[in-house]
């Protein structure tokens, strides 16, 4: 019998939940190899992603696309980490073509490039090529050749205020107009990421995939915390990866739980008729989490691992 359209849409999102779960599982297995128990960590990672209530609500209830672009973005970084840059750039291109917020993964990709120099910077040119390839059906259907890029630029400034649902720093300035503060917010985000990138590249630590997973959380959350007009779904990568990081670092257990619960409350009061919680309280909680993760990441660049010896096994 025919399947209802909404069920078909949800199934696509759910399939990409599994893709994202497998990618994060592969990362966790590599991180767990040094402990000789990679399958335990892999199973934990896979289960935490698939059973994450945000993934269930996002894909299974709302039929949203976060699992698609987040899964492809994580796959892109994983390929790059495995020294398969062309595959990685194709995955990133598909992710960005799916949703512009996939660019949140690019800071860690660029940081990894400047630190390792394992691929050519020219490999990044594959990303716009892939985006254009994905747009071929739309172009054949009559859209302009630059339809993808015009869509992206149209989105910038579409909403007149800095705050848009996600509890970040702009929650405390809800009346701040985008046309005045939008560019300043982008500059602030760029400055924070650039400072971290410079310190990262010049530190003498040897980083493992476990470190990169935590840095993925921080860089993507930096974008969600400071960029304007952030929706409650745009911190999706951090919300999927941080609980897995907590398997390796017990001090991340409470932050991971809090991050998921705060975002779940945003989903609940927006789509599930839950009682509303003050957006200022949610934003304050998110900012406390972000500042703690910031301290861990910056301090971890120079402590040679002393700050993260709280592994559970």
Query: Averaged pLDDT, please?
Result: 90
Write down the secondary-structure element order: HHHHHHHHHHHHHH
Could you give the count of β-strands? 0
Through-space gap between termini: 50 Å
Q: What gyration radius follows from the Cα positions, in whole Å?
A: 19 Å
Class by SSE composition? mainly alpha
How many domains make up the 3D coordinates?
1
What composes the largest sheet? none
Q: Outline, from the CA principal axes? A: globular
**Percent of residues in β-strands:** under 5%
Low-confidence stretches: none
Q: What's a concise summary of this model?
A:
The protein is mainly α and 313 residues long.
Plain-language structure description:
By secondary structure, the chain is mostly helical. It has one domain (5-308). Helix content is 68%, strand content 0%. The chain has 14 helices and no strands. The protein is globular. The mean pLDDT is 90.
